[in-house]
From TrEMBL:
InterPro entries named among the record's database cross-references: AAA+_ATPase (IPR003593), ABC_transporter-like_ATP-bd (IPR003439), ABC_transporter-like_CS (IPR017871), ABC_transporter_ATP-binding (IPR050763), P-loop_NTPase (IPR027417)
Membrane topology: Peripheral membrane protein
GO biological process, one term: response to antibiotic
Residue ranges of every copy of the ABC transporter domain listed in the record: 4-229
Organism expressing this protein natively: Actinomadura rudentiformis
Superkingdom per UniProt: Bacteria
Keyword Transport (UniProt): yes
One Pfam family named in its UniProt record: ABC_tran
Any one of the GO CC terms: plasma membrane
Protein name: ABC transporter ATP-binding protein
Location within or outside the cell: Cell membrane
GO molecular function: ATP binding; ATP hydrolysis activity
Length: 300
């Protein structure tokens, strides 16, 4: 049985349709992404999943429960990450943890949780004195304190530096490996690509595509591209006459070759026949961002 089922969800605010016929399921142990640009309808969708908003139409089940009807039961099993600034400035890390532990019947051991999240030394630090990364880790700790089966993490790494983002991604993988199903809401395509097992690309309130990150990029990945610096002068015809090559362009010192499958093998073999080495060779692949643009016709 899927952990989360969303079927034909529809939600409008007055005349504004925020979510239209959104359907997807999340399996046990997945990191599932709800991915799309600002205003796409991501928050509305997860707030319906959390039971915070009432859908106009559609059916939602989380762990077999109806989020609207069974909200009290669901709260014990679903962890939700707070948005920043939802905690009082003066609250210490330990006080926040104790407060949130009191909401649950079977809370996690706070010492182990703070250790795991790298906050053990910040126990007595007030919320406002925490760094961006520490605040983020605390909000994740609070989402996990009830030992949930499912955790909803919203805009996980907004405002974090690249190092803290990578640490956070590693942390999320660890949490998943411990058996928590994760619903990740993000507008960062790179985050979704690195972290999610599967994702729903949401665009203007609708699911534009539902697949794994590689499944999505493969759909639009009709071309391959190689860039390299030839070790000796290279005549264009050597490569443009290959059936695998569709285009060859040059920058000041690099050759860029576009083509179909087997491009790499065909190009390197042709170069080798003329004793030319492809220095600094790079194979460029389609990113999730490219896939989003191809699938929706818009920049994320
Ligand atoms: N309470 C509300 N009243 C009216 N319109 C709303 C309300 N909440 C959201 N909207 C509108 O519904 C649409 C979807 O909003 P939603 O917050 O679900 O998108 P989002 O993808 O989460 O965006 P963001 O990443 O900016 O949070 C947007 O056009 C938004 O302006």
């Amino acid at each position: 049985m899927p952990v989360i089922e969303v079927d034909q969800l529809h939600k409008r605010y007055g005349a504004k349709v925020a979510v239209e016929e959104v359907s997807f399921t999340v399996d046990d142990g997945e990191i599932f992404g709800i991915v799309g640009p600002n205003g796409a309808g991501k928050t509305t969708t997860v707030e319906c999943i959390e039971g915070l908003r009432r859908p106009d139409r559609g059916r939602i089940r989380v762990l077999g429960l109806n989020p609207e009807r069974d909200r009290a039961q669901l709260r014990q099993r679903l962890g939700v990450q707070l948005q920043e600034a939802e905690l009082p400035d003066k609250l210490t890390v330990a006080e926040a943890i104790d407060l949130y532990r009191s909401f649950y019947r079977h809370p996690a051991d706070h010492t182990a949780l703070l250790e795991a999240l790298g906050l053990a030394d910040q126990r007595k630090t007030r919320y406002r004195k925490l760094s961006g990364g520490q605040k983020q880790r605390l909000s994740i700790a609070l989402a996990l304190i009830g030992r949930p089966e499912v955790a909803v993490l919203d805009e996980l790494t907004t405002g974090l530096d690249p190092h803290a983002r990578r640490d956070t991604w590693a942390l999320i993988r660890t949490i998943r490996d411990q058996g928590v199903t994760i619903l990740l809401v993000t507008h960062f395509m790179d985050e979704a690509e690195r972290l999610c097992d599967r994702l729903a690309l949401i665009h203007s309130g609708r699911v534009a595509a539902l697949d794994s990150p590689t499944g999505l990029t493969d759909r639009v990945n009709t071309e391959q591209r190689l860039r390299f610096r030839p070790s000796a002068p290279l005549a264009d015809q050597l490569l443009t006459t290959l059936p695998e090559v569709t285009r060859l362009t040059r920058t000041a010192d690099e050759v860029i070759v576009t083509g179909t499958t087997n491009l790499l093998g065909a190009v390197t073999a042709a170069l080798a026949r003329d004793n030319i080495v492809a220095e600094r060779l790079r194979v460029e692949r389609t990113s999730l961002e490219d896939a989003f643009v191809a699938l929706t016709g818009q920049q994320p």
